[in-house]
Design brief:
Layout lengths: L3 H8 E11 L3 H12 L4 E5 L5 H5 L2 H18 L16 H27 L2 E11 L4 E7 L4 E11 L3 E3 L27 E5 L3 H13 L2 E6 L9 H13 L3 E4 L5 E4 L5 E5 L2 E5 L1 E4 L3 E3 L32 E3 L10 H17 L11 E4 L4 E6 L2 H6 L4 E7 L4 H5 L6 E7 L5 E8 L2 H13 L4 H5 L10 H8 L14
Parallel strand pairs: 1-2, 1-5, 2-3, 5-15, 7-8, 7-13, 8-9
Antiparallel strand pairs: 3-4, 4-5, 6-14, 10-11, 11-12, 16-17, 17-20, 18-19, 19-20
Amino acid sequence: MASARGTQEQQMSHVRADLAVIGSGGAAYAAAIRATTLGRSVVMVERDTVGGTCVNTGCIPSKALIAAAEARHVALDSGRFPGIDTHAGAVDMPSLVGSTQKLVERLRAEKYVDLVDAYGWKLLRGDARFEGTPDAPVLAVTMSAGGVETVEADHYLVATGARPAVPAIDGLDRVDYLTSTTAMELDEVPESLLVLGGGYVALEQAQLFARLGTKVTMLVRSRPASREEPEASAALAAVFADEGISVVLGVVPESVRTDEAGRVVAMVPGREYTADRLLIATGRRPITNGLNLEAVGVRTGEAGEVAVTDQLATSNPRIWAAGDATGHREFVYVAAAHGEQVADNAFTNANRSVNYSHLPRVTFTSPALAAVGMTEEQARAAGIRCECRVLPLENVPRALVNRDTRGFIKVVADVGTGRVLGITAVAKDAGELAAAGVYLLAAGMTVQQVAATWSPYLTMAEGIKLACQSFTRDLSMLSCCAA
């Protein structure tokens, strides 16, 4: 019979690699791919489903459902085109969610699981925890299948992502609330829904369910999309009101409870709001608990985010962090850029820094909210003398033929140089405007240059040119396709 010591030794093994990655989302995969192309060995540790938030519970399923909800809304909204009359019936939620899950599973396999063998790194399924000392950190991985794997690496990457944050509200722990993750798994459309929050997740989810047939009320602490231009908040509030979504500003529930009928009641000073379901969409919180980061000298912030330099190095020179775990802007393309930068900095001494000055930001409402560069408030706070123009969409021919002029395009420019500092739009395909704005800002173009640059007629992107022309011209005095 084997001794207890012999059994323990059989259950433990040791792995050595150039890079050990905790997590398997966008940041983790970008780092692993880059490291392997540099000829480095990689071990990746994942305790849950491979692929991270974006493909499993975030971008892919939410945008797929948003697209479906918009298709239904377009049918119901066809009356804006005279001579067109369409209808939409009730939503078969199990079929809709089931088809979305099939898309998720296909993309998870093609873009994540299959790449492990294609690039040749080792994937460990289990829970990772740092052990050792700051000078000699190691990972102890409690394997899902049993046993413990010890991982020793030259460099380590914390890419564990984030989860929905849950605010401290009295009674919330006794309510069956939804998050952005569990809302994607519902098997029926709620008759009514309270949405707590005013950020991009709250806005997208509120409109999604409203377009599926739910009566939606949003409870917002300040204003919708509070990080963006106030014109964007006002435009989206008007759109939501037009679609029957109630947006209540300046309220924070003091407590929540479930009434005798099983409905959720949110209590704010002087009033109660009741609905069948409650969605908590008040932000996300980095997943770093249980990693034992303090033992290896890695500092974290108040929300658990890993503190990093502009080069994504932590307070331990052998440990890096990337993506949502850092508390930086929560976009999958940010996470991917982080991961690749970590591999370059760790193995080629590239000393690359993160630069968010031209970062595009998109909220997938309809019309969408998108921005790049500075807002007017940010420019003034930075001491820049700026001037702005806000172009209502009724001045954009594409919006006119779409029969949807809800929204605007705003350009922020430096007074002294005329250089474009920022662009914000609420419009159909506003994300494409932000993408165009990235190149425009990166090139350092001025409003005069943009106003004189080619732009195809009857595209929404033409609105950027028109907004820049409005700095010096009265657009009402131009013909519809004047240069």
